[in-house]
Amino acid sequence: MQTAQRRERKQNKPSIYPYDEWRVVEDSFDVETNYRDETIFATGNGYIGYRGNFEEGYQGPVGTSLQGTYLNGFYESHPIQYGESAYGYAKNAQTMLNVTDSKIINVFVQGEQFSLFEGKLLKYQRVLDFRTGIMHREMTWESPAGNRVEIHVQRMVCLERKHLAAFSYEVTPVNFSGEITLVSALNGQVQNQVTLGDPRVGSAFHGQVLTTEDVVQDGSLAAIRQRTQNSRFTLVCAMENAIETGNQYHLEVGTKEQMASAEYTVDALEGVPVRLHKWVAYYTSKDYDEHELVQLARAEVAEARELGYDKLTAEQRDFLYEYWKHTDIQIEGDPALQQSLRFNAFHLLQSVGRDGKTNIAAKGVTGEGYEGHYFWDTETYIFPFFLYTHPDISRKLLEYRYTTLDKARMRAKELAHKGALYAWRTIDGEETSPYFPAGTAAYHINADIMYALKKYLHATNDTEFLLKYGAEMLFETARFWVDMGAYIPKHENQFCINEVTGPDEYTALVNNNLYTNVMAKDHLEFAFETARWMKENHSQVFTRLAEKLNLQDSETTDWQSAADKMYVAFDEEYGIYPQDDSFLQKEVWDFENTPEDHYPLLLHYHPLVIYRYQVLKQADVMLAMFLQGNRFTTAEKKRNYHYYEALTTHDSSLSPCIYSILSAEIGEVNQAYGYFMRTARMDLDDYNGNVKDGIHSASMAGAWLSIVQGFAGMREYGGKLMFRPVIPEQWRQYQFKVSFAGRLLRVSVTPKDTTYALESGDTLTLYHEGAPIDVSTGKPVTVSTEPKLEAVLFDLDGVITDTAEYHYLAWKQLADELKIDFDRKINERLKGVGRLDSLNIILENSTLQLSEDEKKALANRKNEYYQSLIEKITPDDVLPGILNLLKDLQERNIKIGLASASKNAVLVVEKLGIGEYLDTIVDAAALQKGKPDPEIFLTAADELHVPYRNCIGIEDARSGVESIQGAGMKAVGVGTPSAMDIADWAVQDTSELSVTKLLQWI
Amino acid sequence: MQTAQRRERKQNKPSIYPYDEWRVVEDSFDVETNYRDETIFATGNGYIGYRGNFEEGYQGPVGTSLQGTYLNGFYESHPIQYGESAYGYAKNAQTMLNVTDSKIINVFVQGEQFSLFEGKLLKYQRVLDFRTGIMHREMTWESPAGNRVEIHVQRMVCLERKHLAAFSYEVTPVNFSGEITLVSALNGQVQNQVTLGDPRVGSAFHGQVLTTEDVVQDGSLAAIRQRTQNSRFTLVCAMENAIETGNQYHLEVGTKEQMASAEYTVDALEGVPVRLHKWVAYYTSKDYDEHELVQLARAEVAEARELGYDKLTAEQRDFLYEYWKHTDIQIEGDPALQQSLRFNAFHLLQSVGRDGKTNIAAKGVTGEGYEGHYFWDTETYIFPFFLYTHPDISRKLLEYRYTTLDKARMRAKELAHKGALYAWRTIDGEETSPYFPAGTAAYHINADIMYALKKYLHATNDTEFLLKYGAEMLFETARFWVDMGAYIPKHENQFCINEVTGPDEYTALVNNNLYTNVMAKDHLEFAFETARWMKENHSQVFTRLAEKLNLQDSETTDWQSAADKMYVAFDEEYGIYPQDDSFLQKEVWDFENTPEDHYPLLLHYHPLVIYRYQVLKQADVMLAMFLQGNRFTTAEKKRNYHYYEALTTHDSSLSPCIYSILSAEIGEVNQAYGYFMRTARMDLDDYNGNVKDGIHSASMAGAWLSIVQGFAGMREYGGKLMFRPVIPEQWRQYQFKVSFAGRLLRVSVTPKDTTYALESGDTLTLYHEGAPIDVSTGKPVTVSTEPKLEAVLFDLDGVITDTAEYHYLAWKQLADELKIDFDRKINERLKGVGRLDSLNIILENSTLQLSEDEKKALANRKNEYYQSLIEKITPDDVLPGILNLLKDLQERNIKIGLASASKNAVLVVEKLGIGEYLDTIVDAAALQKGKPDPEIFLTAADELHVPYRNCIGIEDARSGVESIQGAGMKAVGVGTPSAMDIADWAVQDTSELSVTKLLQWI
Q: How far apart are alpha carbons B595 and B603 in whole angstroms?
């Protein structure tokens, strides 16, 4: 039924940066890419963010640069304008402000101002270094008058000091001695970018928003105090400067309107560098009493000057050394990738708020896209990265959510619900999403945050956090579900969650979004279990909390009831989980007739048009199957993947990484690699063409997820850490580290094996492909992942025995009774065909008009005949060679499974007397789909706890061979030419099968 | 399953206007109600609209008045602000402007300015007269200094002259002689009301919008020219004045800023009136070249002065005489109602644009609610009123839609669709709805307009309009459906229309809204039929149009295919049509715990909350059942009515009239009357508390609909005009007129009969309760509607024969075979119970575990036994007295129907030999619901073409009696006490039944 093709998008423009493992390097200046490069070369410490602007200012064409400085969490608000408003709409927008520009250092060479657009640029290099944490530039410039200087600039935003940034600006006359002037300044006259048309950039303010209240100059030290109007924040930016020169110099300081500057004029000598150091501090009333701000900022820069520039660089380097020790992923065989992974991890560090009062914005602190807002991106994409590399940071992210709990309670109340509902997009916790169908309706945010909390607890055992903050958030959000959902009679009184929007924003306002329901179920179970555990282990804390929340005893059991009865629809026909109640009743998007330049769809089609079709912006059901992987079988993942993947545009940057992870999990490693590369280099290659507006922090973390949770298959359920590593053929090795429960684990994967090494902490039991492994420090464990035969899965009919004759006889008897012609030739058409369909084939030769009920009755009658016939089966009916094969396999401890679609399999096995050899018989009645769907073979392997690649399946029907291969196993085809044609190996007769051959083959 | 209660809303404040059949009269001035009264006393001619403001200005508190003058279709536009915009959103808002205030006539009495808030108001009366079309005021005022004057003001907006309004202002000194000054003015300094918070009022402009370009004064004549910025219209308002006094006077003219005035100072004598006449004209560049406007306006007022004031009043009276001749509805026994019906019809005339370029705004030209926009209200509610009273006006409304067809084409293109999509709300045709889920998503607007076109053609045979305008609109809108809908595999490849919002705006963005699908089906059939008819009868016109539209031959057949395969869901369990695919899967709104002051819900709950529940703002399925009444049976109407009525808040003023109509149709006349009264006096009683923002034009028309289509049951299908009159017990008679196909028909309904009189035109065949009647001029036809026995409907089992014994024996045989205890006592429980449920009762005594299929098989087996047993039935098995009764009924031409739920009824009738007596046997297998649902008896009556009230049903089971009574028939209960208890009459035995008794009873 699907006509849609998976669409491969071309990347925008190939990267201009040479591959360098620890740096991004730009060797020439390009106006065309400058706007984007400003994002790439941005520096930050999770609080202060500088775009990669030039200290000397920018004289290029309008629209090729955004001079930006941001403070995480520092915003102005303003009332949202609605064409048509309604009750409960989000009232205020919040915009992260472009704050006081403190990057300014202007250079005059013998009176001529340095500019990239005048004179000659003889050399240019800009470097962002992930190990030093410094952005530096080297330039050789010849002024229009012919005076040549070498310039070397360093900039760092101090990772150890939230409020501090530092600059080193060095100018060396090359072909002259003369006057060099360096003007270091603060400029309060700043405003946000005005971008219209693209909903992802957001409508910002027009004109200046910050009111400048005071400009102070005190020698080389200066400060500007500014204020916001609506959010009522005060901001102070201070600078200190120091000139380093052997020559004479003159300092002139001054304030002008909203500017403060320190102008150093130096009598410079040819070949002798002049160096200016500049320290900048930002303090706001979000953190401190507003009267202390000036003092704090001044003290900060004074202290920094005292300390000296080099101390700060050393501190920065040390900090990053520790960071990389826990964070670095190494890939052998792919330098482009290696670079981007470090680039991503570095920017994530630069973006993440670590003070417990801020979070991580969609664009970090590198640009104005999405207005500096925090989304579910944090918990769903970025949180795991920090949790498994720097759990202390991940705690801070959860602490932030706790600070906004009161606002979440208020929001729930506005919506006439109990409990708390977290804001879909926000800075300070208030809902600011002006389009509720893709804002407030994304109720899953509550479950997403609580999922992160659960993972955090499993990975850290930080019960102190749970008792102090976590439980309160958990209970308030759980009661929200119970209040907003309902037991719906038309869905057998299952618990339904109606009128929501799931992760896929190309579908909105639906009932029972699969992701939402499954996540809510997990959330409610977690809440119930936590309440139970607290009552047992921390009853006083629980009682106090219950009193505070007015939490009734019945509520906690309501959580469990709702979870138990959570409605999860399943479509029998397709064998998949519908994304929501109505999804499969929609038309499939016409991908074939959608021009390439009409992506992303949201910029070319009205929401009503997009909502009307089966088309996904991003992973939805698949995201549920990743996060809640233990609730779904591999067969389900495969089947749903194939359905939804074909419908997904990946118009959201949050999509490819999830598809990469799932591709890896279902064994499509090449596909996983493709999706991973889109994720990993999304920003460096500017895949979506909007890096200028800021980095994609979630996608950056998604690259980490794709490796650790994708290729290495790391999962954590119930505190157990599990891996199922695969490796793309492009790589020789990959290696990463995981912090878990106080341990630091190193995992290395090669095409042949996986090594687990514990770098610190107590012995850890982890699970490799389902099997437990104990790892201790100094005792790495290497597990081979080379294929070996661990299990053989047999079809029954035509492989172990031949019941075909009995089927023929049973049908023959029925046909005779109905007076329908039926012979062995017609019988051939029945092979591999289900019971009712077989009957329909037979009825082709009849004029009988039968109802479905009557047909069922006839099919049952045939089965009764068949069952009487197979009563006669004896051990002699086992086909030649099979009994020996079973015995040999058993002797070698190779497991044996029976994967037969026949509902009479158990009876036949009993009659054949081979039950003792079989380690498992799959219950065909419990399957969602028959062959050629791989479910039956996957199930057999799962029941035997054997990796699929270590199984061989033996089949006589083509659909059976397809089923085996679909399961990622090797197939032996027996006897039937159509099956033998596509099988990995073929035999004419079962007597040709032997253990030796099977071992040889694999 | 329903816990919801129908909620009766209290009216806001009882009407202060005394009941007066032809006028609204206000005898005292009340600041509290002034804002509202300004709407009530508004005057207009479908183009110019004056709120009922005082000529002397208003000095009352802020918020108690809106000085307003409007021109239908004259607006300013401005870009809509979206917090988060998206592709294809409506770009511009349009707001009907408050234009140049020309009402001003200030009065000074010996230098003291008249004001309602100073001095003493000794007498006050304000009157709106529906026959003269004049709003007049009588006042006696004593100035603070003690000078007393009588004031008499008249105002009219000329119904015959689009651009003209006229005033007569008379002042008579009562207790003094002295100076009276009258200042007549135009004021260009006007602005729209700023109302925030209520989405229904709409966000208007802040401050003055019209730019005043010129103020001209030329003696007593003056003009102001103004301009809009974005819509680029020019407006000229001119005035002429004339004083009428025997005394000396002095005229001083002048312009000041944006004002022009003529000041008459008169030396008035005690007892001698001073009278000022004023004529005002409005001309805009929407109608004429902007350079001609001043000249046109001046000429208009000059001509009016020439003509004299009295000629204009005579013209006005004549116009209204003709209007009422076609329009007036007379009610005997309800003066309050009589007043409101005329009030409504008068305001509808004042509101309707009759120039083919304008339409009728939701609030007419009386206020700023909904910004002067046109909605589907026109075609669905207001159009029928004009169609059946003044078809020439209804044509103008359709012409307006044609003028916006190009904009509708553009809108379709923006939405990536073929054809045309009319704007949900607009003035000039451009979509201006800023909230698409209750705007663009209401795609049904296309079908609504085309439905009006169809009705227009049936009522006028105006093929010229069809060929010139109608077909083009019809084809373009039809191709839109085919493009946006789809054949959906999961709905058996039926044609589905997904992602729409139906009339009920408390549910949004759903699939297969019943109303939308049924209306679209009708629309597509109409388009196909029209294309076929044109090809046959006007092939050249068709070919030209097809070329213009690039219409392929296959497209017209696509219309028919989509109509044929239109998906209309039916819920077997409830026996109703779900409002949409997901409606019944939602929770029912908790009406019981919703405080009275939380209505309308939209002002107290977030849309997400409202959308999540089964709760209706207004009629939806029921509206489909009204408009497409011939596609639904009475049984369906009853069942759906009872389901949806309980869920409807009537938060929309469009709701009660539809429920009134349906209530009348299903025989709930009291209920119909209640809903009707809410509709009829909605504005006079200010039921929703927002009359201040303007009249509710749709609801006003709804009152007319409620009488003509509700109580009188008028329907038109396929050109046939039908009536099914009922009359509320409160009335002695009601009478109305209908223009149809060139005739003028008068219909009078009393409790006893209905009279059809043709006032003009050729003989008309109409249908009274399904029976054709020919009416010619001078030959009125009176049809009795008093109950008389026309049909007797028999249950079979227990009434005509007793097959109960055979059922018992058949069950007994089955039970014995299954070895289950079964006796006559248990058998009693099976009476009136279906086959499968009976089996379940029997199985209570068994431990057998049976599948549904197996149960079906057993039930079939029992039926086989039963069928063999009833083979033995003979005519002797007819119960005593029945045969005679059947014979007697047949002799008296009283029809006989068999309403038996038994699927073996035909066989039993045959065996009994009574087939010859039966005029119909209902096919029980074709029914949606069994007894006690009334469907079976309703079906029998329908098949016999007998009104329900003229049927008697005879039943032996309680559920059967309930079924009869639910059908609005009288029931005879036979034998069984539980049935006899609730029956209208009861007999112990069939032998007691006789024709005489039945005739007596009825």
A: 13
Amino acid at A24: V
Which residue is closest to B85 within chain A, CA to CA? A199
CA dihedral B614, B620, B622, B624 (to 10 degrees): -140
B775 by DSSP, 3-state: which? strand
Q: What angle do CA A661, A662, A665 make, to 5 degrees?
A: 90
The Cα of A492 is separated from the nearest Cα of chain B by a number of Å equal to 10
pLDDT tens, residue by residue, B36-76: 999 999 999 999 999 999 999 999 998 899 999 999 999 99
pTM: 0.92
DSSP per-residue string spanning B366-394:
S--GGGG-B-THIIIIIHHHHHTT-HHHH
ipTM confidence score: 0.91
Residue A203 has pLDDT above 80, yes or no: no
- Report the alpha-carbon distance of residue B711 to residue B673 in Å, rounded: 9
CB contact under 8 A, B606 and A203: no
Measuring CA to CA, how many Å separate A376 from each of A350, A363, A381, A424, A451? 19, 13, 8, 7, 11
What residues of A are in contact with residue B84 (Cβ under 8 Å)?
199, 202-203, 433-435, 439
Which chain A residues contact residue B603 at CB under 8 A? Answer: 87
So what's the pLDDT on residue B212? 95
Summarised one tens digit per residue, pLDDT across range A17-62 is: 777 889 999 999 999 999 999 999 999 999 999 999 999 999 999 8
- Closest residue by Cα to residue B644 from B623, B673, B674, B665: B623
Q: How many residues does chain A have?
A: 1002
B582 neighbourhood in chain A, CB within 8 Å: 498, 511, 581-582
- Taking only the tens place, the pLDDT of each residue in B776-787 is 999 999 999 998
Q: Which residues pair with A517 in a beta bridge?
A: none
Name the closest residue on chain A to residue B580, using Cα atoms: A582
Question: From CA B523, how far away is CA B477, in angstroms rounded?
Answer: 9
Q: Name every chain A residue with its beta carbon within 8 A of the beta carbon of B491.
A: 585
Question: A871-883 pLDDT, tens per residue?
Answer: 889 999 999 999 9
CA distance A172 to A583: 66
> What pLDDT shows up at residue A15?
52
Question: Phi and psi at residue A356, in whole multiples of 5°?
Answer: 75, -5
Q: What angle separates helix A958-966 from helix A935-944, to the nearest 10 degrees?
A: 50
Closest C-alpha to A822, from A803, A798, A846, A806 = A846
Quote the minimal CA–CA distance from A487 to chain B in Å. 8
Of A85, A434, A604, the CB nearest to B87: A604
Residue range A246-267: average pLDDT? 92
- Residue tagged 């009407």 (tokens): B15
Average pLDDT, chain B: 93
* A726: three-class secondary structure by DSSP: coil
Find the mean pLDDT for residues B607-634. 97
What is the rounded average pLDDT of the residues A318-344?
Answer: 93
**Mean pLDDT across the stretch A610-634?**
97
Q: Give me the numbers of helices (H) and strands (E) for chain B, helices first please.
A: 30, 37
- Which of B38, B56, B505, B668 is the catalytic position? B505
Rg (alpha carbons) of chain B, rounded to whole number? 33
Whether the Cβ atoms of residue A460 and residue A386 lie closer than 8 Å to each other:
no
A605 with B84: Cβ contact below 8 A: no
A606 contacts B87? CB cut-off 8 A: yes
**What residues contact residue B494 under an 8 Å CB cut-off, 6+ apart?**
B487, B488, B565, B566, B567
Q: Which residues of chain B neighbour A604 with C-beta distances below 8 Å?
A: 87
Residue A748 is predicted with a pLDDT of 98
- Of the residues A440, A585, A852, A855, the best mutation for testing chain B's interface (the one with the most B CB atoms within 10 Å of its CB) is A585
